[in-house]
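Encode chain A's predicted structure.
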Amino acid sequence: MKTEEKPILNHDIDVDPRKGGDFGLKDSGTKHTDIPNDSPIEEVRNAIPATDDSTLPVLTIRTWVLGPLMCTIFSIMYQLSSYRRSHMIISVSCAQIILLLVGRLMASALPATIVRIPGTNWKFSLNPGPFNMKEHALLVILSTTGFESTIAIGTINVIKVVYHRNISVWASILLVMTSQMIGYGFAGMFRRILVDNPYMWYPLIVPQVSFYRALHDKEPRPRGRLSGFQIVIICAVLVFAYTIVPNYFMQTILAVSFLCWIWKDSVTVHQLGAGYNGLGLGSLALDWESATAWVGNPLILPRFTIVNTLVGFVLIAYVCIPVAYWMNAFDSKRFPIFAQKPYDYSGKEYDVERVFGEDLQFNEQAYSEYSKLYISIAYVFKLGFTFAALTGTVTYFLLFHGRESWQQLRQSMKSEGKSGDIHNELMKKYKPIPQWWFYTIIVSMVILGIVNCQLFGKEIQLPTWAFLLSLALPSILILPLGIIEATTGAYLGLSVLSDLIIGYLYPGRPITSETFPAYVQSTKMHAIGFLAEYKLGHYMKIPPRSMFLIQIFGSLLSSSVKLGTAWWVLTSVENICEIDKLPKGSVWTCPSLQPTLTHTLTWGGVGPARMFGPGGYAGLYYFFLAGVAGPLVVWLAARAFPRRKWIRLINFPVIFISASFLMPARPVHYWTFFALAGAYHLVARRVAKGWWARHVYDASNGMDLGNAFFGVLHTLCFGVSQIQGPQWWGRDFDEFCPLSMCPTAPGVVRKKCPVF
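Encoded structure for chain A:
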């Protein structure tokens, strides 16, 4: 029986909240029933043509030569730089430009010779024609797997460098391969819901399609107008030129805190006005990266997501944190408002090594004699909102998506799903990926993971039951988290949840607090990442089997190269990551590993049972209930008042997730994000509606490209050689709020701070 097609988020109403419908403004996400077989999402209609050229070659000799070569180079660069003092990062947009130039060079230089493989019927052309958009996209996907974080290698670093324990080559290979691959298997279970459904539109993927079109389309430019490629280049040049100012000549404008300039000697004002270590009132950063790198890009996120992000930020930064701090909840006045490090009761940084023996076993008596572990009030609420985001996402999914998801799952099993979406119709000409391919990945990786636990369990400190639990947890959450990311662009990690669970179930084992989250995070990250890239291929009409092959091959190649590089560095560089033992000026300082000892000993050693037990931070568990209550109230209100369409625009998962971005994101990043969002959505988008529809993604991609190229050149030209800019008061990165880190409890002493 044919079921009625409905938007998966908005039940029986016209407004689609994922499309940025705002309060009192004309919503852009209404379903277009007058245009048959077209996408119901306006941004998709504007950026992605409903056409396809199935004659374009995709898996060409250029793909198989350039792809593995660039993937290997990028993987080596990424892994080497992860140990160095200055981290070398090449963005995806930079890789796209590099591969475009090399691909076109090969297309113009190589002869169209047909090469036959002896003993087979296989043959290929050295030059199958012009370098095309589909080929370019596959090449970028394969190459840029080298940029992706391989979490399991971080676990190996911790075992060998932080704890000086041995881990064999085979244990390392199995750990890396199983954690990298199993997420791809789980992704196959949710393709029909998270890819084929046109309402799962992935706001962060659409600009990538627009960028490829700007680079490849040769549509005639209207008289008096700029082409998409020209917009990209102009914006890239402008941002590149400007970025030199805040990153080389005047770093102080990376965080301008006006209140601190006026009241230089007030601790309270500095706590209120500091953009990095305070509440950020009146703070702003004057560069593109600060506005987009931490919270998101306001030019491409839906208005609905931006409004809910604002609500979440105000709730945590200007309601929860200041009220709790000035009420001295959790003895918060003894510590800085914003800090990620743990503290003891005296206000000093917690010396975790005092409560552990040489065998890394927790010493209960030493802990009782020393001090309980304390955290800053901002970090308290970051954890709280993370808890709320987890239960809120699941509740939101069950209430707003449960019925449709179940129906689509049943239809996919019966091969009855029909979307009426033009992009799905165009993809029907290509062979789909057989489901058994995904099941094979799951079964084989589970078997290899169990073998690793049985043979090398002492090295990785992960029993078989914990390994299976680390797979069950993300497999349950992939669908709700995937829906949130596919409709809003909001991303939620599972590190805190995995730390909490394994800390309770298997306490006192610091290495386990690395291996268990590695599986949880990797499985979730690669599953949703696979689905997002698959949607990219869906929009660009790339054959699904070609996408699958490239994704799997790229992941295997990049993880193998990174593991080999890591193993060589760890065994070749003496005293790597040990700053006190390294020669003066050595670059092998491993800055990303420095906080790991505190993290693993805190969660895996001291453990959540002590941190969140009686007398600790047990009150944070109420945030789990808040996560359930928020979406439930919205759902009930929407059913009680079906004509109040704005009610459905309230998305508590986005509210909670945006609040949990705090640390590493700081208030100055939020305010810069909101300032740019206001300038664009309230001014530019209204004044230049036509331009927005044509070129907003081109402008955004251009600015990202300019910022990325500056980062690469700055690192190569100045970072490696340690060349500094001109020395003057504006050159140093300083927001001039030195008192923002001061405690305000009576009698607590901190260097360069007044004693109250």
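The mean pLDDT is 85.
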